[in-house]
Specification:
The structure is a single chain. With 296 residues, the chain is an alpha+beta fold. It is built from 15 helices and five strands. It folds into two domains: 169 residues, Transcription factor LuxR-like, autoinducer-binding domain (Beta-Lactamase, 2-Layer Sandwich); 115 residues, Orthogonal Bundle (Arc Repressor Mutant, subunit A), CATH 1.10.10.10. 56% of the residues lie in helices and 10% in strands. The protein has a five-stranded antiparallel beta sheet, sandwiched between helices. The longest helix has 23 residues. The two termini are 16 Å apart. The relative contact order is 0.12.
Length: 296
């Protein structure tokens, strides 16, 4: 069960963050009760990427600078068993459960031995895939880490929202990639104009306006200021209903059985809700719906 009150308080804290460092700080303040004191998240660089290019893939990082320098200069990202597992699995998991499969590995032992010098003894790892197809690998580190399965789910939930906001801060640099009409439609929508008003002003169909807004939001990335319309996202009753069940952890199949619809239809409603909310994945969509008051 999602604690909407606690989640909304955290979301508001993340929304106030204006830098990736502030997002990292908010995440650690949330996760420190579980023994986690540092976080790093980023997209995966191509093999052979230089240390500078690897750092450019970071989305969030509160790692000590010395550890960052050592990690990228020795290309550890390409040998890190924690990164490798998170990339393939996605689900939040404790480091110690990952490392059981790497006992006796010289490369893994060397990396982890050095990490301990920076109080990175245990932690959790996970990954997220955005609507644009980017895979974000995220890892929290600490010394004495204790989380139950439900607490792992909670940390994963808030991490997904934080990643969405962190990507939005980077997305500001992508505004120049928008077509002139995409910019115009998004800016008018952000200023509170309805779809009908925008269509009339720009001599377009309402469907055309929606297509321009959705295309612009995809380019900007989830969470960008211009992709968050000033009005509450207009979810249909069925989209809202599907998302409410998703917030309670129900799968597309379970939602379809509860509502008496096909699994394909449930999946379609959830996808539409994610798109309207500018969310990177289902968990992010639930968090956005809470932030916008969709469930009120």
């Amino acid at each position: 069960m999602v604690d909407f009150g606690k989640t909304q308080a955290f979301i508001e804290q993340i929304q106030r963050a204006r830098t990736s460092a502030a997002v990292s700080s908010a995440l650690i303040s949330f996760a420190q009760d579980y023994g986690l004191h540092t976080v790093c998240a980023g997209t995966l660089p191509a093999r052979g990427a230089s240390p500078g290019e690897q750092v450019g893939h970071f989305v969030l990082s509160s790692w000590p600078a010395e550890w960052v320098d050592r990690y990228v200069s020795r290309n550890y990202v390409f040998h890190d068993p924690i990164v490798n597992h998170a990339r393939q699995s996605g689900n939040a998991i404790l480091w110690r459960d990952i490392l059981k499969d790497y006992e006796g590995s010289r490369e893994a032992s060397k990396l982890l031995s050095e990490a301990r010098d920076f109080r990175l003894v245990d932690g959790i790892a996970m990954s997220f895939t955005t609507l644009e197809g980017l895979q974000i690998v995220m890892s929290f580190g600490g010394e004495q880490v204790e989380l139950s399965p439900s607490q792992l789910d909670i940390v994963s939930f808030v991490s997904s929202y934080a990643i969405g906001h962190a990507l939005s801060l980077r997305g500001k640099d992508r505004f120049g990639e928008l077509d002139a009409m995409e910019k115009e439609c998004l800016q008018l929508a952000t200023r509170g104009r309805s779809i009908a008003e925008i269509a009339e002003r720009l001599h377009m169909s309402e469907e055309g306006v929606l297509l321009q807004i959705e295309a612009g939001r995809r380019k900007l990335g989830p969470g960008h200021a211009l992709s968050r319309l000033s009005e509450m996202p207009r979810l249909t009753p069925r989209e809202k209903e599907c998302l409410q069940w998703a917030a309670l952890g129900k799968s597309e199949w379970e939602v379809s059985q509860i509502l008496g619809i096909s699994e394909h239809t449930a999946e379609k409603h959830l996808l539409n809700a994610k798109t309207k909310l500018g969310a990177s994945n289902r968990v992010h969509a639930v968090a956005e719906a809470i932030r916008c008051g969709v469930f009120d």
